[in-house]
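Title: [Solved] DegT/DnrJ/EryC1/StrS family aminotransferase 3D structure

Original question kept below for reference.
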Amino acid sequence: MSERFTGSFTQQEPIPEAGIEAALKVLRHGRLHRYNTAPDEIAETALLEEEFAAFTGAKYCLAVASGGYAIGCALRAIGVGPGDRVLTNAFTLAPVPGAIAAVGSAPAFVETTENLTIDIDDLAAKLPGAKALVLSHMRGHICDMDRLMALCDAAGVPVIEDCAHTMGAAWRQTPSGRHGIAGCYSTQTYKHMNSGEGGLLVSDDPDLMARATILSGSYMLYTRHRAAPGPEAFEKVKYVTPNVSGRMDNLRAAILRPQLADLPAQCARWNALYQVLEAGLADTPGLRLIPRPAEEHYVASSFQFLLPGWSGDRVRALIARAAARGVELKWFGHAEPTGFTSRHDSWRYAEAQSLPNTDRILAGLIDMRLPLTFSTDDAALIARIIRAEVLAVHQGEAGPVEAVPAAD
Ligand SMILES: *Cc1c(COP(=O)(O)O)cnc(C)c1O
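Solution (posted by the thread starter after getting help):
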């Protein structure tokens, strides 16, 4: 009998007990709004910002309602608006082009390499006239940041990093989110810290962060922040910056602070799962692993591989066979957006763009979550199942794949 996996690809770990305790404390005193504090009390949200700034080495940090909000807030804070052209990865998640569109700008997509990172040659060609780059470290893959920053700096194009999948990661010794003018992180349930929804924005730029703080809905209470620039930075911007309400509350911050303390250990656990899968799938005919450069200190909370040149029917056959054995694979090649996976051609509020390399790569791109509820034995079992089913379909042992209905 063939082996079957019975775990859930969407089940994260529970909130740590220290987070539950801290949350109960907030619930019991009832002061959930970040600016609702007792005399001498420091809000959980302000403490989280201070701790996350220290974690990333940033001067300033602002906690907000979501990762997408953090990106939109950073764009607004550097003066991006209607009519501007903003570059971003063609391979990213929908909230990224969504944040660009929400400030009235036009997303301009940059091609994708076989390593799933932004294509820096295509970027170089598209930089002239761009107002900003939102660089998405999609699925945790980090491009050559030295080359990218040199090009963007020379062109005078500010870089906002989307670190939804690189919280805790680095390029050389510099944390992800600390290369560009601002770094944006998400604390939505499937990211590296879980508060259901939430976001963090870091930067060393006092003007940007003063604007971002007012934008987030600080009213004139910004002096209560502990990781914000001084009052002088706010004097110039406080009358001219709209309140685009998007604060974080003390309940979420209370849940997040113990998770931040655990983050390095959690990152090591993700990488242990990743490395077992990588070893289990090495040298599988028909399957290409994604190489990881030595400069990249990744945090692999998900796993990707390519099926180069496979037809849609074959990919669908593989997904169906893996699913029958309990392994849930996501495919970025679907013509229609499904679940969390969508492609540039389904973001039709943006002008249609020709991205042949991205289309070719996404047609063979398989994606899988690696929740920390999995053990390394689970990862080894998942690798054995994928390997066997890839071999069966690739070598034609699965029979004629055209017989599989193209239901999804
Ligand atoms: C999740 C995610 C975001 C935004 O996060 P939200 O908190 O859900 O708004 C941005 N970029 C990528 C690549 C993501 O996966």
